[in-house]
Every structure is written in structure tokens, then in C-alpha cells.
């Protein structure tokens, strides 16, 4: 599985670099064509002929302001492109993005260096115009210094329009890409496992530790529902010892099939041992042995009794199996299934309604992002902040029984997010129960 994961990662890296190299070549050619044509047209139009060298220099200065405005539009789009797809129309910008990401530097620094790479490359593209325009002015009488400056001003105006157009079209394309990525057509459990679960990454270190701590307070000996479990088991291990039965629900059959493979100990099943080991450490076992890990795996397999096909878009997400649970855990599901905040609120209400009054809800969500990447494709997320989570949970969970934590995980920027929100709440009992 580790080899397969590495193969997937290498193939994804090659795809992203190939796309960047092609985009870089096309955009260099297009920019050259537009800028040269604009420069030649401005000179040929004669609109500025005879304005004198000083006025031409002022026009050139103004054209740089225009160029900077266009550049700021394409820079913003380039960052979004890098975050959502890991590709860019500038080789240097992608190089800076990849190198800083590998050293897990802060997002702000990564953004600054990617932008610097982009700008340096755009400036380098200006050089031929200067050599061409001034070379011609010096070497021949056919082109005057004034004409050379007017040509450069025109080329800058063309470049500004090009950069603005590039930024706009990139944003439109990305918006379309997000709305077109659907779980039904584009979700691959193998790619998800390869991208996110080859090792215990920082976001999962925090999530598992949070669930392991919260699990100590959930009522013992009852059934638990893990809603939107995906093809994963890492959030199940922390709750296994507390509960009598584990019911796992997901929208996609292919995800549940991946779980079945693990339960049945198929040869191709994902290896969750590093996650079991980490869970045991969170529970206080300093150095879990192989036998400790196998024991938790055996217990988990024995307690998984039901796999459910669920759909959060339905009023009754569990369909015929609709019922209440004493504990419901839902990690990166409602927030990873829509980009719309109101839709997320509706989905969360449906998940909360599955929790018996007095029961416990454990939730994890991506923070402040429009999307996250699986296999290079962007899946939606509604830009959640901790305040959204608090507003959502406050009504059903009394203040003292609600924990909400935002954790910054800049190391995860390559997946499309840099923070996560973890929440645990014990649902209010009806007044008569108290
Ligand atoms: C990002 S994955 C999270 C999986 C897992 N909980 C984890 O932490 O790795 C999002 C999950 O939401 C599920 N999902 C998407 N649309 C859904 C829907 N309409 N109803 C229920 N689950 C859905 C997907 O099948 C997928 O498994």
C-alpha cells in the first residue's frame, strides 16, 4: 500500500508539473503576442507621436501602474490556482510554492514567495522588449527614443490587459471546476487514502488526540454512529473501547467497500496500524507494542456491526435505518460535501438530530477554505470559521458542555486548507429529564 501511495503521489506530481510547464509556455507566447501587438499598434496609430521624450517617459511610468493593477489580479488568481490544484501558469511561482511547502513554512511566507516567483518571471519577460526597443532606437534612425518609449508603454498596457484577463479567466475556470467536482463522478477512495493517510499528518494528530480525549467522557456500553466515515477508520479507533457497537455510515458504496476490505483483512486493505499506534499513545500508552496494536484492531473489527449507506441531503439521512444514537461522530463530512454555508447548516442540523438528548456529538471540520484537494481535484468546503461552528452548536449544546477548538495546520496548505475546527458537545436533555 505504501508503494502504491508513493506511485500515486509521483504520478500526481508529474501531472501537476506537466500542466504548469504547458501553461507557462502558452501564457508566455500569448503575453508576447498581446504585448507586442499593443506596442506596435500604439506607435503605428500615431496618437502619441511628437509628444517628446519627457512626456513619453511619463506615459511609460503610467503604463507601469496599469501593469501592476493587471498583475495584482493575476497574482491573486495564481495563488488560488496553486492552492486548489497545485499548478500555476508560472514555473518559478510553482517552484517557490513547492519548495516552501516542503519546508513547511508559514502560509503567508509561502504566498509571498510564490508571488515573488511569479513577478520575477513576468519581469524577465519584459527584458526582450527593452533590448528590442532601445537596441533598435540606438542602432537605427528609423526608430526614435520617443517611439521606443511609446512602444514600451503600449506593450505594458497590452500586458496589463493580458494579466487582468488571465486572472479573471482563471477564477471563472476554478469556480466551474469546483462546482463540477462531485462525489459521484470524481471521488476515488484509493486517491484519498494515498493523498491523506500514508502517514499520520499534523491535522490528524490533532483530530485523533481531540477525539481520544473526548471519548473518555462518552457514555459507555452504547452504540455509536460515525457519519461520513469515508474509506477510513482512524477516527473509529479512539472510541472503540467505550462503545458496544460501531455503526459506520457513508454516502458512497465504494468507501464502505474499502472499510469492508479492512474488516475482512483483505490483502489490499489500507494499513491503519500507524494510526492505531498513535491513538494508543494519545490514550497514554508510551510505546504501544505490535500486540497492543493488533488487540485494538481486533476489538474494532468485532465492534463494527453495521455499514450504512447514508445521504445528508435527505431529511432522514439514514433512510430506513433512521434512529437516535447516544454518540455521533462526524469528521470532515458536512463541511466537505458543500461550499454553501446555509447548506452546511442544514446538514449539521440533520447530524445533530441523530444525537439522543443527553448524548454526545463529536465533529471535525476544515477551517476557512473553499475547497480541499483529492487526486488533484478540488472538492467543496464552505469557508467555515469557529464562529460559524459555535452559532451552529450553541442552540443544542449548553455552554458548559461545548468545546470548540481551532487548530492552525499550515503544513496542510498543499491539501487546500491551513486550519481545522474541532468540536465536542453534550446535547441538552429535555427539561423534564433533569
Ligand atoms: C473528506 S471525506 C471525509 C471522510 C472521513 N470522515 C475522514 O475524516 O477522512 C468526506 C466524506 O463525506 C461523504 N459525503 C459526501 N456527500 C455526502 C452526502 N450527501 N451524505 C453523506 N456523506 C457524504 C463522502 O463520501 C466522503 O466520505
TrEMBL record:
The chain crosses the membrane at residues 21-45, 51-71. SUPFAM superfamilies: S-adenosyl-L-methionine-dependent methyltransferases. This is Putative Amine N-methyltransferase. GO terms for biological process: methylation. Its EC number is 2.1.1.49. GO terms for cellular component: cytosol. Keywords: Membrane, Methyltransferase, S-adenosyl-L-methionine, Transferase, Transmembrane, Transmembrane helix. GO terms for molecular function: amine N-methyltransferase activity; N-methyltransferase activity.
Amino acid at each position: 500500500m505504501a508503494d502504491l501511495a508513493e506511485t500515486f503521489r509521483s504520478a500526481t506530481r508529474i501531472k501537476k508539473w506537466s500542466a504548469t510547464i504547458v501553461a507557462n509556455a502558452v501564457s508566455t507566447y500569448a503575453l508576447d503576442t498581446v504585448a507586442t501587438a499593443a506596442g506596435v499598434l500604439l506607435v503605428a496609430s500615431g496618437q502619441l507621436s511628437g509628444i517628446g521624450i519627457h512626456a513619453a517617459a511619463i506615459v511609460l511610468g503610467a503604463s507601469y501602474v496599469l501593469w501592476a493593477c493587471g498583475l495584482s489580479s493575476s497574482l491573486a488568481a495564481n495563488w488560488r490556482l496553486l492552492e486548489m490544484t497545485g499548478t500555476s501558469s508560472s514555473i518559478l511561482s510553482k517552484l517557490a510554492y513547492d519548495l516552501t511547502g516542503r519546508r513547511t513554512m508559514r502560509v503567508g511566507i509561502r504566498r509571498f514567495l510564490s508571488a515573488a516567483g511569479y513577478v520575477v518571471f513576468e519581469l524577465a519577460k519584459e527584458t526582450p522588449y527593452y533590448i528590442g526597443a532601445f537596441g533598435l532606437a540606438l542602432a537605427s534612425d528609423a526608430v526614435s527614443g520617443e517611439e521606443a518609449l511609446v512602444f514600451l508603454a503600449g506593450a505594458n498596457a497590452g500586458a496589463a490587459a493580458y494579466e487582468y484577463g488571465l486572472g479573471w479567466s482563471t477564477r471563472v475556470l476554478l469556480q466551474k471546476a469546483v462546482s463540477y467536482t462531485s462525489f459521484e463522478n470524481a471521488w476515488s477512495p484509493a486517491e484519498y487514502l494515498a493523498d491523506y493517510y500514508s502517514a499520520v499528518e499534523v491535522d490528524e494528530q490533532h483530530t485523533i488526540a481531540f477525539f481520544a480525549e473526548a471519548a473518555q467522557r462518552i457514555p459507555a456500553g452504547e452504540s455509536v454512529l460515525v457519519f461520513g466515515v469515508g474509506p477510513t477508520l482512524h477516527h473509529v479507533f479512539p472510541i472503540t473501547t467505550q462503545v458496544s457497537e460501531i455503526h459506520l455510515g457513508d454516502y458512497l458504496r465504494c468507501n464502505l467497500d474499502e472499510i469492508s476490505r479492512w474488516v475482512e483483512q483483505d490483502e489490499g486493505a489500507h494499513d491503519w496500524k500507524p494510526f492505531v499506534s498513535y491513538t494508543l499513545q494519545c490514550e497514554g500508552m508510551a510505546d504501544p507494542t505490535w500486540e497492543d496494536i493488533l488487540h485494538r484492531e481486533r476489538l474494532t473489527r468485532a465492534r463494527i456491526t453495521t455499514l450504512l449507506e447514508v445521504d445528508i441531503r435527505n431529511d432522514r439521512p439514514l433512510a430506513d435505518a433512521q434512529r437516535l444514537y447516544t454518540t455521533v461522530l462526524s469528521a470532515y463530512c458536512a463541511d466537505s460535501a458543500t461550499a454553501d454555508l446555509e447548506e452546511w447548516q442544514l446538514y449539521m442540523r440533520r447530524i445533530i438530530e441523530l444525537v439522543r438528548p443527553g448524548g454526545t456529538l463529536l465533529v471535525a471540520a476544515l477551517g476557512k477554505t473553499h475547497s480541499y484537494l483529492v487526486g488533484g481535484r478540488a472538492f467543496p468546503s464552505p469557508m467555515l470559521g469557529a464562529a460559524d461552528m459555535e452559532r451552529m452548536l450553541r442552540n443544542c449544546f449548553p455552554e458548559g458542555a461545548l468545546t470548540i477548538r481551532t487548530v492552525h495546520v499550515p503544513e496542510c496548505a498543499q491539501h487546500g486548507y491551513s486550519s481545522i475546527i474541532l468540536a465536542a458537545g453534550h446535547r441538552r436533555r429535555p427539561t423534564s429529564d433533569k
